[in-house]
Design goal:
Elements (H helix, E strand, L loop, with lengths): L5 H20 L1 H9 L2 H9 L3 E2 L5 H19 L5 H15 L2 H4 L1 E2 L3 H23 L6 H28 L8 H10 L8 E4 L2 H6 L7 E2 L10 H15 L30 E6 L15 E2 L3 E5 L6
Parallel strand pairs: 3-4, 3-5
Antiparallel strand pairs: 1-2, 5-7, 6-7
Helix pairs in contact: 4-5, 5-7, 7-8
Length: 303
């Protein structure tokens, strides 16, 4: 690099500066991974993580070979060799970060979304170098094909879940009526409880309120999530939610108060009328009743 051109040295400075900036901005992620407070530890376990310090031997060997190949090609005059060497070093570290942190978490994301697509570009790039096709039409064709494949796999990955979840994005008249009621300014600072896990998952995309039942991606410890579930069960009772892998809880609707008590004046009940729900319509001053849903403030329902 010392003997390289001014533009190459400038590029190295930019890359190192970007890497240093990224490391600083990633501190809010790395510090909790290293210190591991209870909420972070339980959150990682819910995402499929587990504790280990064993290295991934196959990625370790493969990345080491690709690093050596890139740097060797760079020493023989390939201008892109140092860039790909740094890239494969980053891959080696990312796929084996558990050796340092002690936690392995969804390594397949890196492999599928970053390393795999860029590996295609690497093969095209180094292939054009070895076969001296960098300035030829064939080399340009390879680069174009790689770009098309890269964008194509992104489109495919986005299209597949959208097609599968199309039903969740279909709004009919009763659902729209529910959204309109929940959008009123007087309810904006409430939280909601529901007897339907599907509503609990999709409603936050349409309304300003947050579900009072904890979501598995919430940065809470298992103990905190249990306390919130117990508090919600104290309001809703032990009705299993349709589509949920677990019942809300076995706690009864009446009895000793849970450790965390929810404020009745800040709760809106959004009930699916096709599921069991713990309120009687005659005991509530409902904000909405249609063929599918009932909406009422808990404070407007008889205890």
């Amino acid at each position: 690099l010392a003997a390289g051109s001014q533009s190459r040295r400038r590029c190295v400075v930019v890359v190192l500066g970007a890497a240093a900036s990224s490391a600083v901005m990633a501190l809010p992620v790395w510090v909790p991974l290293i210190t591991r407070p209870p909420a972070v530890r339980d959150f990682l376990l819910r995402l499929g993580g587990y504790s280990t310090r064993e290295p991934e031997l196959i990625p370790l060997l493969l990345c080491s070979l690709l690093i050596a190949l890139s740097l060797l090609a760079g020493l023989r005059g390939w201008d892109h060799g140092w860039f790909w060497g740094v890239f494969w070093m980053a891959c080696l570290i990312v796929l084996n970060q558990q050796v340092l942190t002690g936690i392995k978490l969804q390594a397949f994301h890196y492999l599928s979304y970053f390393i795999g697509p860029l590996a295609v570009l690497f093969l095209c790039d180094i292939g054009s170098r070895f076969f001296e096709l960098e300035r030829g039409r064939f080399g340009s064709g390879l680069a174009l094909c790689a770009a098309i494949l890269g964008f194509g796999q992104c489109v495919y990955r986005i299209y597949q879940p959208l097609r599968q979840e199309r039903a969740f994005h279909t709004v009919d008249k009763p659902f729209q009526e529910m959204i309109d009621v929940m959008g009123k300014p007087s309810l904006r600072h409430h939280g909601f409880l529901t007897n339907d896990s599907i509503l609990e998952d999709i409603l936050p995309a349409y309304i300003p309120q947050k579900p009072l039942e904890p979501y598995f991606l919430d940065p809470l410890s298992t103990g905190e999530m249990k306390a919130l579930r117990d508090a919600a069960a104290h309001v809703l009772g032990a009705f299993p939610r349709h589509g949920s892998a677990e019942a809300k809880t076995s706690a009864p609707a009446v009895g000793p108060s849970p450790r965390v008590a929810l404020d009745r004046t800040g709760i809106v009940l959004v009930m699916n009328r096709h599921r069991a729900f713990p309120i009687h319509l005659s005991s509530c001053r409902a904000l909405l009743i249609n063929r599918d849903f009932v909406i009422a403030r808990l404070a407007d329902c008889a205890p």
